[in-house]
Amino acid sequence: MTEIDRLKQTVSEAWDSPVADQVAAHWGYPAGTAKWWRSSASHVFVLPDNGRRRYLRFVPGSYRGPKPLTAVAELMARLGDGGSAVVRPVAAESGALTVTVATGLGAMHAMVVEPAPGEEVDVSELTESQASYWGQALARLHRDAAGLDAGLPESFGELPGIGELFADDTALVEATARLAEVMSGLPRGQDRWGVVHGDFELDNMAWEDGRPVAYDFDEAALSWYAADIAYAVRDLTDHTGRPATGHRARFDAFLDGYRSMRPIDDEDLGCLPLFAGLHAAASI
Fold it and tell me: Does domain 2-113 have CATH number 1.10.10.410?
């Protein structure tokens, strides 16, 4: 939150920022061109592109080193080259997919991505057919990203710090410890563990002709495929990670779509409530 506030204080009433200007210059954009859009895991600014738009994304060096962003950019490029429905990174003027820029707020690790064609679909508008294509898209990503794991972190790295951060919340600390203990015993065979998107929810994809194109790979990591499924479908589930009332048909369609592209067994699906709890703990 501190880094988000520091950046927000540089944003003018015209939504530009001298920090973004310094970063965007590496892609040949003049000052005042980049317009602030949002800040969360990374700062995101919109760039014009011949009547369309591109997205400048950068993260403070004090928050994260350059390797994860480089790994994400290379993952997206290689997935795109292989035909996966993901947005593609845009090379800087230097030819690199990512750059580290010295700015008034310190070093920023940056990349630019193309827009995803189409429109967002809200969960209330999601059809069973779309849910099936959504599941197919995640399965295809899991399949095609196999082996493209260089530089990616493992998921749930936040869990060890919960005991110190929330020492006064005994129930939370104990529950997290129990979940982490169960997680540590899960198998990591290549059919269960690999490269995941990390946030494959409806908000991170656009739909064109009934099919999704994924973006926002900020949380890409090495994890269990079932964990990626659990986080993706959280809008279709209740707090236990099980299908919510009114969403069962969409949930089943998602899994049917996933299974049409790659197998996942009932043992893995039985872990969805566990991963829902782990995601909740890691997100605190």
Answer: no
